[in-house]
């Protein structure tokens, strides 16, 4: 990694293959780089909305997307065939995009949330939030961070995650904060494709071979215990966003519909308990998140000043 | 707005409209519907508004850079590109010229984007799509997720060729 390209930009322009790609500024070496995803967007906090609470809420929804996208991207080159590999990568990309916008929104609403880096660091706010927070500062639900299983586990989890997130985003399109509302309006269209993809594969696996049916049943026993956490109310969500408890019926209806077509029944498993009542939304995570973050963050943390 | 400013905006808009999409180079940003506005500020700065196609669209940065380069190259000293998130982009904004350019380049243009409540669909999406190679209507979807976020992958049963379809969005 060298800063040489930056200083030579003017005189050495023709020797630098990347010169033509650069706008007015150099790019941070890692993460989403480029420019503020909310460039020119009015991020004024609307009347009656608490800025720090709005930021916390955006962090929750952003972390769900970021952590789950990281899990999905671990599937790259490992899916059963090329079409599915590309589909999973596309879904992960949509979620990274949602995460980036939501983390940028969180940072704009409450700059105090953003980890500080050495003076002159080019790392943008949303990347500081993604790469420079420890597990305890993440607010994603625990379903997002679970280690990957087989393809059936991928499908069962994607069905639940996309059904739940779509229900949230559909309610956020009318949010008082125009930025959140716009992010949700775009996300709804993306999540609808994710849910259909998962639902179709869910039915295919359930009605496929004895082996695919058995694997799907096993996967549901892993995923279903994490559903109650998705519809548990927290003060922040209830006050500034969508109260998760109000989603339970709709999620139940959609999942029942898929299960009915698939001809499979939901497992009778108790929900995964929190630790002294604390779950992912409170920063209480499984060990799996620390390992996921270690891999995702290691390069960025080693080069907080890196440019290319 | 003064006559001079009006002229500047018109010229800037004409230039911005000619910039092409990095992933679908047969389309201009105007044809794709992502170019939302071109305006001039009091100090002469040209402000171009673009909207993302998908939340994670990696082409946004290239679009921004291309716009800045083309406009500064045409003599505009100060150019800024801003993001416009609302209303969200829809494939319905792809112009008729854009649809023709897609088809001419072997890409099936999108149908009308769905509106209203989001329905769960557990069977493959049905679209009446003609093969852009041979014109046959005997086509089948291979995957709802293609080589970029905005495409589905199709196959023509008549000529056997695979092709891309821009998903309704
Ligand atoms: Zn054909």
What does this protein structure show overall?
The complex is a heterodimer of chains A (308) and B (169). Chain A has 308 residues and is an all-alpha fold. Chain A has one domain: Ferritin (Up-down Bundle), CATH 1.20.1260.10. Chain A has twelve helices and no strands. The termini of chain A are close together. With 169 residues, chain B is α/β, with parallel strands linked by helices. Chain B folds into two domains: 87 residues, GMP Synthetase, Chain A, domain 3; 60 residues, no CATH class. Chain B is 25% helix and 20% strand. Chain B has four helices and seven strands. In chain B, the strands form two sheets. Chain B has a four-stranded mixed beta sheet. Chain B is elongated, with a radius of gyration of 18 Å. The mean pLDDT of chain B is 94.
Low-confidence stretches of chain A: 1-16, 19-24
Order of helices and strands of chain A: HHHHHHHHHHHH
Largest sheet of chain B: 4 strands, mixed
CATH architecture classification name of the largest domain in chain B: 2-Layer Sandwich
Oligomer: heterodimer
Supply Rg of chain A: 21 Å
What ligands are attached or bound here? zinc ion
Domains of chain B, number: 2
Number of separate helices of chain B: 4
- Name the CATH superfamily classification of chain A: Ferritin, core subunit, four-helix bundle
C-alpha termini separation of chain B: 36 Å
Number of helices of chain A: 12
Instruction: Give the largest chain-chain interface (CB within 8 Å).
Output: A-B, 51 and 42 residues
Tell me how many strands of chain B there are.
Answer: 7
Shape of chain A: globular
Largest sheet of chain A: none
Mean pLDDT of chain A: 90
Please provide the ordered H/E string of secondary-structure elements of chain B. Answer: HHEEHEHEEEE
Class derived from helix and strand content of chain A: mainly alpha
Strand order of the largest sheet of chain B: 4-7-6-5
Main structural class of chain B: alpha/beta
